Amino acid sequence: MVDILHEIEAAVPALRRYARALTRDFDRADDLVQDCLERALAKRGLFPPKGPVRAWLFTILVNVHRNSLRGSRRRGEVVDFADIPEPSVPAPQPGHMALAELDRAIGMLPHEQKEALLLVTLEGLPYAEAAAILDIPLGTLMSRLGRARAALKTLTGTPSEPHLRTVK
Crossing angle for the helix pair 94-108 and 138-156, nearest 10 degrees? Predict the structure, then answer.
């Protein structure tokens, strides 16, 4: 019991990083991780001790996020006035512009592609583990990754994104 709590605690930084990349909002990401951890602790008796705790937590996080998206579609999205950028802000340096462009492009991907891309590239998970977390066949994961990378190439107008390629 204590071991699983230590493994859950050790996974929190990765969960937060993935949640922030999925939601693109620090507060929503922290809420998502909190909901994930609450569900994990409440359901820890159902966890099969043979499997990795981290993969189980990512599965919970993905499911909680999907449920949240379904609910937000029904409610609509609220835009905070403070989040609207000032039009007179000078352009950042080129490196930041490229990162901002890539961030925007990732945000435009279909949700299924974004989930797959972020698990493999941001979290560095092996393809098989990412497929298991998303509860999809390995071939489907590979297809989503290919479509995500092609879409990013088109959206950013770059010949390739070597930093988004991982070999597992």
Answer: 130
pTM of the model: 0.64
Q: Would you list the DSSP string of 2-45?
A: HHHHHHHHHHHHHHHHHHHHHHS-HHHHHHHHHHHHHHHHHTGG
- What architecture (CATH level 2) is domain 1-75+94-156? Up-down Bundle (1.20)
- 26-42 vs 53-75: helix axis angle to the nearest 10? 120
Region of residue 157 (left: phi > 0; alpha: psi -120 to 50; beta: else): left
Q: What is the pLDDT of residues 52-91, one digit of tens each?
A: 889 999 999 999 999 888 876 666 666 666 666 666 555 5
For 10, the token pair is 């050790």
Q: What residue segments make up the domains of the chain, in order of their start?
A: 1-75+94-156
